[in-house]
Fold each of these.
Amino acid sequence: MAPRPAGRAALIPILGEVFREHGYEGASLAVIGARTGLGKGSLYHAFPGGKEEMASAVLAEIEAWFEDNLYRPLREDPDPRAAIRASLAATETYFRSGRRVCLVGVFALGEVRDRFGERIARYFAGWRDALTDALARAGRPPGEARDLAEEAVAAIQGALVAARAFDEPAMFGRSLRRIEARLLG
Amino acid sequence: MAPRPAGRAALIPILGEVFREHGYEGASLAVIGARTGLGKGSLYHAFPGGKEEMASAVLAEIEAWFEDNLYRPLREDPDPRAAIRASLAATETYFRSGRRVCLVGVFALGEVRDRFGERIARYFAGWRDALTDALARAGRPPGEARDLAEEAVAAIQGALVAARAFDEPAMFGRSLRRIEARLLG
DNA sequence: TCGTGAATGTACCGATTGGTACAGATTATG
DNA sequence: CATAATCTGTACCAATCGGTACATTCACGA
């Protein structure tokens, strides 16, 4: 596939934040235009498929980031315990210590799940499986590893919801530390 | 306050489902009308404040339901361990074994949080505090009780997100059983 | 300096949004 | 039956939605 204009790449993080803050349907072309400083002409030039293509590009970037920065290290780091610790630290940074919301989680709860269902499931499954792998390599019995991983992935999502519901971002860090204790304890 | 027409009460559960499925902004008057079988005239007669009043009424019903069926029993049941078990069973039933989403959680993640922020926080705080109370009465040290409660409330939200992301409602029941083990173990 | 294609802003499209106005139907009360 | 209050459907409103069309501007190679 032909390389898209460079500007496109720069837009994706902005689009990500807009989708995070407003959700898929809530992210109108008006607010996207305002945040990117671009008119519809430019937006549709970079993303001929409109909003759907924008969201798809954002999802692709997120998938790639998590694969590179979380899943692969969890699977491949020779020190699985260190990898688990590092992955939780990266998670805290990525979600801005609870001030940022998980776009995939938001999508999962909304109507857009029908549109991106496969990729949403893949994002979560990738996380769970990578964590399962690390836990197993750290000595956990396979079944227990998978259970713990499933629990941790869900707990992270829940911590993001709760931190936002309480309007208390610090809750996210507390949750991550509890999760780390459970995983490594 | 004067009692609203009886029809109003019957509408609220329907409105709740619509808001759950579509979110606040996604629940257009068109779909609300279709689901309730009522025209705008009737809807605005029952809820002069429009969508905001509808959502507010739904939230009020949810708050009351949780207070009556979860929070108060957790605080008052002389057998706190039985109360915790019962509250988790009620939770599984309420969320239809993971097929139903938490409206308050959905609101917390969306833009509507600005509109209902206080009540969203109160819903979560009520849950956490009631569970903290039961755990303390069951013999947990106060700090540990509160931590466990916070973790459990977040975990329930996370389990709902994950169950929907994986499109695997059974995950919710699994999570609840793990939570029960942690709380009572 | 010119030409060319990419990049961009703007006007516009039909559809839909939340909300209002109001006339007519329905119901309860005398 | 008559009258009044309560409901309810429909037509309508301005604003906004996602998306298209197109004329203009821009950067850059020949």
Note: The interface with chain B takes residues 21-23, 25-26, 101, 104-106, 108-111, 113, 117, 120-121, 123-125, 147, 150-151, 153-159, 161-162, 164-167, 171, 174-175, 178 of chain A (CB under 8 Å).
Amino acid sequence: MRILKYAILGLLRKGELSGYDISSYFKEELGQFWSAKHSQIYPELKKLTAEGFITFRTAIQGTKLEKKMYTLTGNGERELAAWLTKKDPIPETVKDEFMLKAYFISALTREEADELFTDQLVKRKEKLSDLENSYHELMTSSEDADSFSSPDFGHYLVLTKALERERNYISWLEDILALIKKA
Amino acid sequence: MRILKYAILGLLRKGELSGYDISSYFKEELGQFWSAKHSQIYPELKKLTAEGFITFRTAIQGTKLEKKMYTLTGNGERELAAWLTKKDPIPETVKDEFMLKAYFISALTREEADELFTDQLVKRKEKLSDLENSYHELMTSSEDADSFSSPDFGHYLVLTKALERERNYISWLEDILALIKKA
DNA sequence: GACATCATGTAAGTAGTTACATGATTCT
DNA sequence: AGAATCATGTAACTACTTACATGATGTC
């Protein structure tokens, strides 16, 4: 698999980045669909360098803070392109702890189930609200983010997908809550 | 975390099961939201036994095939109940390799993007069709699966959620494909 | 008799998280 | 001066996958 490898190669296609920069991207919208901790990123950068997919130069921040700025090599670009155009089967399982609990709902009373599902609904609505703010921000800062030729199209894709995912979760939760409350 | 622990405890709440039986459940609808390979299940069963959450008796299948039938202990039931009613924060990241590729769409030509998204759409539609078949099966075999008091309600929940997830994915893919094709 | 399925385990390796460890820079 | 953020690394551990290994049962 080694998907983190491709996540890093993909992020580097626009220019040089430090390990810290890569980590920051995973805290933004991309983090809705992929992320990694710095303790996983730094060793992966070392490995990708050894494999010849990326190289780095050492830059100085301020007077002595050293940071490594990584860039894609030709080999790295080809490796990325091969992965991007490859058609994978869709995964059988997308793990969701809340849905695992839902499967065991017969172990709960109606009141307990109502509480659990209501709590989930509240949290999903909060998240939707955050995503809607990000969406409005993107659409006001970028004129044509929803156009294939825009450099913001990838950003637009992950944001709209995350928005739809949350809206879909909320509407399902509301439907199920109605069934839970039905005498 | 140890979510597999709770998945096993939850499956055992209805009666005794072998490791193989647990593995079979992960290949059915529950597998849409949680699964584990047998190489992870058997050691976990051993651990849960040592911790006193489950016990087993040895049963004979045929004339000499031994299998271990596991049941919940009182401690196991309490452990399960505590997890089931606990309200967790929603995860920041739900990993999706296709969406990671989507984020990097600016590295693809319009034709490549069209191919990638069309392939995903075809696969999602096939999966939706499978899930619809399972849904019709459930609804004909069980009169009131959509009622809180039905023993099939948990099954109904995972199936309807998986169905909605795929429908949502499909409609988003169709919207984006229209944008990709737009000159 | 062959093949699919039932049944259980371990070994080795990869992926990912949490904790340990350090130090510089920027902003208030 | 203190706090938040920038910046990089390793160690220990947990979670998960793939491969190795074996044997019985049921069905055609």
Note: Chain B has two domains: 3-85, 97-181.
Amino acid sequence: MPQESCAFACRFGRIDPRRVEVPRGTLVSTLMMSPLEHAGKTVTIREVAEEAGVSVGTVSRVLNAPATVRPATLEKVRAVIDRMGFQPDPRAQNMRRRTTMTVGFIINDITNPMHSNVFKAAEAELRPRGFTLHLVNTGGEPQREAAAIDMLQRGRVDGLMMTINSEQDAECRARLATLRVPGVLLDREVPVHIDSVMTDHATGMRQAVDYLIGLGHRRIALITAGTDISPGRERKRGFVEAFANRGIPCPEDLIRARHLSAAYGQRETSTLLRLADPPTAIIAGGNQILVGVLHAIQQQGIEIGRDLSLVTCDRTDLATTYPGPLTLIDRDVEAIGRTAADLLLERMAEKSVDPPRRVVFPTTLILGHSCGPPRPRAA
Amino acid sequence: MPQESCAFACRFGRIDPRRVEVPRGTLVSTLMMSPLEHAGKTVTIREVAEEAGVSVGTVSRVLNAPATVRPATLEKVRAVIDRMGFQPDPRAQNMRRRTTMTVGFIINDITNPMHSNVFKAAEAELRPRGFTLHLVNTGGEPQREAAAIDMLQRGRVDGLMMTINSEQDAECRARLATLRVPGVLLDREVPVHIDSVMTDHATGMRQAVDYLIGLGHRRIALITAGTDISPGRERKRGFVEAFANRGIPCPEDLIRARHLSAAYGQRETSTLLRLADPPTAIIAGGNQILVGVLHAIQQQGIEIGRDLSLVTCDRTDLATTYPGPLTLIDRDVEAIGRTAADLLLERMAEKSVDPPRRVVFPTTLILGHSCGPPRPRAA
DNA sequence: GGACTAATTTGAAACGATTTCATTTGCCTG
DNA sequence: CAGGCAAATGAAATCGTTTCAAATTAGTCC
């Protein structure tokens, strides 16, 4: 019966892909190797000490301060450690040292390529220093964010890197103000004593708008995050300033700054394109928004770069690949993650409390295929 | 000086976006709120006991077995706990309970949307049960994978979910064989006593190929992972079987199964398209490979769906958005993550060792805009 | 060889909870 | 009110490591 494919009628020409409900997975029991009795009788430092004929304190020093133990003893104890396969129990170390060698990473959505790239870079910086990362995905719900901060800082991590959903949320702000471990805020601005790594979204946006104005555009639309977080606020500011600098009236009616989501991007794009005097250029202020913008545009049969100019923020597979690379406001996401990790490492090392640091990263306008001179659209 | 944009010469018409090196971020010191002396004098159970006039054992029972304590005492102690803001130190709990309420997640690349979606789903399932996740990004390096397993299972986590880079790696296999904590393998097949969550890539591929054959294609190319991991092996098997079922000779020369990367996808696509008898359809067996395939195709000025049919694996923004949705082999990634978490939860709850379970998820062929009848390409 | 100093090592006390076990308390019945 | 039983409590052990004062050993000089 090689006719399986007949079940999938070809629906060439429709936009929406057919989404067939995926049934629950099948459970198959298998028996491979024997259970193997990995009894894992853990060896303790006490047993090592007894076996080596020394005290536990000496074994501890062999591991943590080898210089203070006589070479002969050192060698003897090390041999026993290797032979018995002893490894100190991290739980006991955490307990005694009041430390965990763990950093918490609280993020809105790890699925977002910007976030996962920041995480990756931070992890790459922290791992060689012996740190492991706890990742909490909050889905942008403030109470989960607050709960995550509470849970993690209570002896679970030595430091915290995070992005919160709204800078205005009282619960989160209160937690940040009384943080018990070093912390770094990512792209968020909260009037609290804490380090932060920011991006100069305003300048990036100003450059992009200026570029579009230079091409002849006046009806430029901006769709971006809400103004309760720095990226939304700064992008909007840069947008407005670009017009002001040129002495050209800003098309306030084309600014949409509410959410960072594909759905929002799609909805607002559809609305904008139906206006009596529609935009000749759209700036997608966020990589999720871009997805929505493109979906909306596809439904209208508009060709990007010819009928409509498009600028997006952040380098994603979609932005660099969409038939031809899009013009985009880029930033070095890896450097951001690395820097956040560095700031945290410093804070965790020296307990000095004073002054909070703030690192601002620049953006770069990268020209792609998605912009051209404005072209009046026929109705 | 609104002339900032003059620095960015419009390079309309070139494919490669201009990549300007982003300078290191600017460091700005700021002083906001006063240091706040969040001394955070931690309250211990001993202090609570003394304050409430009971023993530490009673306080512990108030928290862990409220039913065994007299209502009057319960209330009294709870009041003190609230007043002093006592929360048990997780480090001490871990120590005594021989547990951490933490699960390790070892992954190749968290930047891959499939991986991050699996993680997200698993986290959503585990968090309400009180578990937090350690995420280790290995970059696919076997020694890092082995090191991660070692580090995590040694008293740092209660369970482990993971994908390894190659099922053949001796180091990793050895670790898996002697795992001391419950574990779940994701999309990997290793002859070891461990649970796994798999995808039926072979059937998905067979359907896709059969669909293309039905459209008239014979020169179909497959670019996918190496055969040292289940996805590559299974996809290749399904590919071959589809032809066998139809009694049509399989174009072995068009099978490329080595790496899961954009670079590999781009390189192989370029090569394939330059063949004397090039493929009329390409199957991108992996979301990263898709990126490379599309980049290669763009360089040739080929129109997908007309000049060349394309099928991809896994639903990503790019796959659903690339001018029109692509035909794709879909799977329920969330269900996979959720199921992996469920398997692990069961194992962690009851210590029963026997038989390893294997859940196989089906795939679904979703028809988009990217396939059509084969069209001979003019040279 | 003895005295003194410096270098090692030891043993016990944390660290902060949970858990066990013996003891006390509270309650009920006869 | 005494006796018996169940429930509640407290004291102490435990988890595995680090740390620190005290004790031991080694080394040096006369």
Note: Residues 44-46, 56-57, 60-61, 64, 70, 88-97 of chain B lie near DNA strand C (CB under 10 Å from a C1').
Amino acid sequence: MKTERRRQLSTAEERRESVLRTAIGAFAGKGYFGTTTTEVARAAGISQAYVYRLFPTKEALFTAVVEYCFHRVRAALEEGAARATGSTPEAVLDSMGDAYARLISDNDLLLVQLHAQAAAVSEPAVREAVRTGYARTVEYVRGASGAGEEDVQRFFAVGMLCHLLVSIDAEAVDAPWTRTLAKGITRY
Amino acid sequence: MKTERRRQLSTAEERRESVLRTAIGAFAGKGYFGTTTTEVARAAGISQAYVYRLFPTKEALFTAVVEYCFHRVRAALEEGAARATGSTPEAVLDSMGDAYARLISDNDLLLVQLHAQAAAVSEPAVREAVRTGYARTVEYVRGASGAGEEDVQRFFAVGMLCHLLVSIDAEAVDAPWTRTLAKGITRY
DNA sequence: ATGGGGTGTAGTCGACCACTCACTCTTTCT
DNA sequence: AGAAAGAGTGAGTGGTCGACTACACCCCAT
């Protein structure tokens, strides 16, 4: 009966991952400085003290969340690339973009990326996480699609434009300027 | 001699504007939640209490700063457009982009825009300020350049890409991925 | 020369923050 | 059975924040 899965307590590793998952929703709203560790704890269903047993500091917690987000983005891109293997670079990029659009239909992922970018300005650890995250992502997109520099650049530029559209909830504003900015961008 | 400029005390209006100008530098680093009103006061060379005499709340102060930034962006774009009147839409966009690049050679302007975007997620007043700011800017760029929707969209997408590059200080990283993202983007 | 209104500050206050520690309860090992 | 190891928490700590009040100062019109 060793491997019996009936346990009241989870292992620390399980907890750490579940905290990462739920912390995305917590940080998505008010970002690194605006979100308290108490809110993260409540979202995870544990005490605030235990957050500090799982992660040494708030900063370490946030950077772990950021890295987790980049992993999920990477997974989505891989799935998109797999669905278009053997096509032209442009078609692969399109498929990746579609997979990304599907991933961020839950806005929280994208909002954490935005807040991470903002926190990267003043927090060196966050900056480092964001840098390596984008480094890996850019190189992956380039390699998996085989697209030229300009197309890869446009791919990320449009991604950044998505950050803007989501952060100000442009969907809720029906005006020429929102239609111009959102033109051709898929929403699920 | 009414307009005699020798005064130790400034009028509240003058102070308000000087606070807005210096507050850009204060908010540029850690954004809305991460910057204290005391820091804003110190940057302006006044007491923290006086910040609250000039602006009713921290939120009102921040949104005023955001609006001030949009005004300066608008002025730069106008200058860029003026330098290319009568050219093709593409040339006007180029000239505007160049003027914008010059404006944000001081990074603070752009960082405030980024932080405003982040704060817009949770603070309705900030969201409203950012929305109307972009609404005006998009319509101005469209009207002054006469460019098509796609070009206008790309113009702003590249602007958003600049936000990323500056926030993670991509200039300091010499790697293929940074060169790809920064390709063709002027830096002064 | 003085009264009054605008400029500016010191001091404070309750709320809340990141973080700590002593402690209990559960599971596993022997 | 009993002890060691690990999961999880209640109750704080010191410090700081936004906001407010009460008061000093300066300048100009009268």
Note: Residues 1-6 of chain A have pLDDT under 50 and may be disordered.
